[in-house]
Amino acid sequence: MTKDEHGPDMGLIVAWTLALVMTGWGGGGTAGGAGSSRTPQKEIARLEASGELPVLEREPTLGGIDTNANGVRDDIERYIEKKYAEPAQRKAAMQTARALQQMLLVNKEDLVELDRVSANGFRAIVCLDDSFVGPDSPNSASVLDEVRAVTTNTKDRLKAYLAYNKARSGTVSTMPRGDTCD
Predict the structure, then answer these.
(1) HSE (CB half, 13 Å, CA atoms) of 159?
(2) Separation of alpha carbons 163 and 157, rounded Å
(3) CA dist., res. 10 & res. 149, Å (int)
(4) What is the pLDDT of residue 112?
(5) Per-residue CA distances from 37 to 28, 31, 41, 46, 95 (Å)
(6) What is the biggest distance separating any 2 CA atoms in the chain, rounded to whole angstroms?
(7) 0.85 exceeded by the pTM?
(8) Could you count the other beta carbons within 10 Å of the beta carbon of residue 33?
(9) Taking a C-beta distance cutoff of 8 angstroms, is the pair 77, 70 a contact?
(10) Angle between helices 74-83 and 87-105 (to 10 degrees)
(11) Residue 135 Cα distances to 77, 140, 141, angstroms
(12) How far is it, in rounded angstroms, from Cα 39 to Cα 30?
């Protein structure tokens, strides 16, 4: 595994999250075969304690904990504040997190709300592209992948994100122009 100056290897986060979510681990069984004392929960706790993974809340809700009601879960806000020191990049990452959170929570039957949330998502993508430039800057696509990975960190959140994408499937959108950063 590699770590760069921008924090943990998000490929590892995505791989672990998908492996744990898709295999259904988390019910107290063991990982690694019969008789193994290494559970997925223990491995995640070890990686979080070492700083290789961000500490994420796993409340049984889609919205999670957002004490300041800014539309971004508190754990993701802490992750973004720690990872992105440059103010414009931090702001763009927060806008992206907010848009992704809306995708989880939107009523998948409400076409008007789906269009509004989709527009917010496209605005966030363009803002990322405008904010993450230069040779020392992370790639905006990798930032989007990272924020999406931490946002969809439970099975229910991942299912809600996939349901959003299914609800938007077959629709046409236009990328916004101009200043799209909030």
Answers:
(1) 9
(2) 10
(3) 8
(4) 95
(5) 11, 8, 11, 13, 40
(6) 58
(7) no
(8) 7
(9) yes
(10) 160
(11) 25, 12, 15
(12) 5
Give, in degrees to the nearest 5, the angle at Cα 24 between 20 and 30.
75
Write down the residue that tokens 């790639």 correspond to: 139
Give the separation between CA 161 and CA 165, rounded to whole angstroms. Answer: 6
Residues for the chain: how many in total?
Answer: 182
Quote the tokens at residue 166. Answer: 């299914």
DSSP 8-state class, residue 7: B
The amino acid present at 175, given as its one-letter code, is M
Q: What are the tokens at 72?
A: 């971004």
Question: What does the domain layout of the chain look like in residue ranges?
Answer: 54-168
Question: Rounded to an integer, what distance in angstroms lies between the CA atom of residue 124 and that of residue 182?
Answer: 8
Whether residue 91 contacts residue 72, with contact meaning beta carbons closer than 8 Å, is answered with: no
The tens-digit pLDDT sequence of the chain (182 residues) is 344 444 555 555 555 555 555 444 444 444 445 555 788 888 888 888 887 778 788 888 999 999 999 999 999 999 999 999 999 999 999 999 999 999 999 999 999 999 999 999 999 999 999 999 988 889 999 999 999 999 999 999 999 999 999 999 999 988 999 899 99
